[in-house]
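Repro:
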Amino acid sequence: MTNRRGKRVNWWQSKAYVGLLLVLMIMPLLWPPFPPLDDVPTHMGRFYIQTGMAGAPTLSSIFSIDWMPVGNLGVDALVYALHPLMGVEPATKLVIILIPLLSAAGLLLIAREAHGELPATAAFALPLIYNYAFHYGFINFSLGAALAFLLFGLVLRYQRLKMPTVWRTLILLGSLLIYFAHIFGWVVFGLLVVGNALYRHVTSWKISLAMVRAVVLECLLLALPLIPIVAWRSGDNQGETSAFFAIFDKWGWIESAMRDRWVKWEGLSALLCVGLIGLGIVGLMRMSRRLLLVFLVMAAFYIFIPYAFFGLIYADMRIAPLMLAIGILAIAPRPAWGRTAASAIALLALAFVTARSVATTISYARYADDHARWLKVLPSIPRGARVVALVAPPCPRGWNVPRIIHLPSMAIIRRDAFVNDQFDMPGAQLVAVGPSIPRDFAYHSSAQVRLPGCDRPEPLLADRIAQIPRGAFDHLWLLGVDPANRPKADWLRPVWSDERSALYAIVRQKTSSAAKAGPRG
């Protein structure tokens, strides 16, 4: 078999090999009923609200939807389109499975176009798709980044084929598509396009006006999303920008690039990726000048971007694994090493992808089993109830934490119940809680508590329970609270419990007839 240049196709460049890599990329997500990513239950709760609340009077009386051109709608839009066929939970699972599939396809296409053929080292980049941001449940961002990689790979292809109308249209319209998936996905796409423009037009250290003009004109193709951004980010929707130059955190996010469950395994995996890039930078491996420039642009952006960027938290954490992936794609074995050495490297890359995929599959299966145990309480929650959930995360927080802080949202999806677990992000979410729920208990920010003796910033469980507006809720759901720390108030009637979770009915005090009559005399 030969490639487009008439050269022999090696086994790591075959369709069968690429197909195997794509299967390995989706394998961890196949078993769990819903993807066990930290924020996903809250996202699914929002999807359930957005797809129609006609049959859920409690939800329709509390939530409102404010449609606006938010740069945070990728998975939302796809689930909205698919839910009539399969329901919200299966639609969410299907869309999230597509994220690593599209990401891997995009990364492999970038590597193939940059090197002229798929290098033996390319597969080393794929495990970075299952990165900390993905495990955290930043699914709209992850979809935006996947689209950015795929469209950038197509841009490189049509630039090689000398089809300027096609690649310019891809940048122009692709920018808008990626923006609506997630605004930071558009930023990632911009970094890729800017780095590529520098490679194409900056040909020497002596910068000319023609070079600057060519780079600027190519980058202006990215500007179409500025129209909805101006509409969206006007008024009170600008968001916070803070924590510049947290240098120690920068290295921490690189070490945490694949953070999930096993600190040594994931830390060493990240260091392997750094080491591979280092081999290219010092010249031991061949490095694509095009992708090296893209990597340097992303690295510069990573160093300067703050933790919070116009309301987007963990901004630098999201960029770290994507930057590493591009750095790995830039490297390749030197031709002088021969086919045997390249084949050995390809086998090592395949082994790395397989090991990472198997480990993530095991991790996700364990999270899914754990979630099933936490959610045994759901049948005891009356349909349409108003539930205040209080979650006590582990203390102290470690590398691996149980993904429980957003599990209360499963009561929205499976019991049509209100739960205080939607995100409070003005201008970044379409769903808002109405005035019937006091704001101090309306959103996810009200749900986390700490137990006595725990040195965390959340309020004490007992203090938070005392503040519950009893008239606004029917039930209290405690997660992560052991029996010794559970309340014994007379207005809380136990309904269900196990060693980790408890549900109480809130007993409202009846006004006595004497009190209704008022004072005498």
